[in-house]
Design a protein that fits this description.
With 57 residues, the protein is mainly α. The protein has helices at residues 6-36, 40-56. It has one domain (6-56). The chain is built from two helices and no strands. The termini are far apart.
Length: 57
């Protein structure tokens, strides 16, 4: 960015950092979302328990 003042350079650096942080937060949210989702095996294991509890009532 030759020919532009130091303010423009600082603004650009600041904007890049903001975008990086935004992307990191997005990645963390997606990771937490995938960690909290039950896998198919877990769902299959839980289904008999739920059916058994329903029969107890």
């Amino acid at each position: 960015m030759a020919g532009r003042g130091p303010q423009s350079y600082k603004k650009r650096q600041k904007e890049q950092k903001r975008k990086e942080r935004q992307e990191e937060k997005r990645a963390k949210r997606l990771q937490r979302k995938h960690e909290n989702l039950p896998s198919e095996e877990t769902v299959e294991q839980m289904q008999p328990e739920v059916e058994q509890q329903a029969l107890d009532f």
